[in-house]
Amino acid sequence: MLFHLIYASRATRTVDDAQLQQMLHRARRNNDRLGVSGALIVQGDYFVQLLEGEPATICQLYQEILADPMHDSAVQLDFSEIDRPHFAEWSMGLLPMTGDKQEVLRRQVGDAMLDPPTLDGPSASHLFDLVHDHVEWLS
């Protein structure tokens, strides 16, 4: 049985590219070990992340994220059973929401869905469906 968990949070401090790469490296290493896949969207000070895996494992990871002082105002947007992982090839894919990528998604979904504080579960799931459709954007 596989589930995905989607949450949004705000960074408590500015995260530069080097720090983001360190976070990503740590997440990939841990997720590989745990059998978790997913994707992380970074937009300004906001993170929107999808985790895929066994329910107990991704719930434990989410608890660790809630306890991490880097995250503030974390909100769980969706926790649903899935047939198969969308991002199985990514222990953690990264999508910095900038420039052309942001504009393409904005044209497809409008401004509201690209505003992390206003996302709801269905909108967040749809956003990650679109990211999956543009998987070449992930790093």
Features:
single chain, 139 residues, alpha+beta, five-stranded mixed β-sheet, 4 helices, 40% helix, 29% strand
Please characterize this protein's 3D structure.
By secondary structure, the protein is an alpha+beta fold. Helix content is 40%, strand content 29%. It is built from 4 helices and 5 strands. It is globular. The mean pLDDT is 86.
Give the SSE map.
Blueprint: E1 2-11, H1 17-34, E2 37-43, E3 46-53, H2 55-67, E4 71-82, E5 93-96, H3 99-109, H4 121-133
Parallel strand pairs: 2-5
Antiparallel strand pairs: 1-3, 1-4, 2-3
Annotation, overall tally of beta strands: 5
Give the percentage of residues in beta strands.
25-35%
How does the overall form come out from the CA principal axes? globular
Strand order of the largest sheet: 4-1-3-2-5
Q: Output mean pLDDT.
A: 86
Helix proportion of residues, in percent? 25-40%
N-to-C series of helices and strands: EHEEHEEHH
The radius of gyration over CA amounts to 14 Å
Indicate the low-confidence ranges by residue numbers. none
What is the first-to-last residue Cα distance?
27 Å
Biggest sheet, in brief? 5 strands, mixed
Number of discrete helical segments: 4
Q: Given the helix and strand composition, which structural class is it?
A: alpha+beta
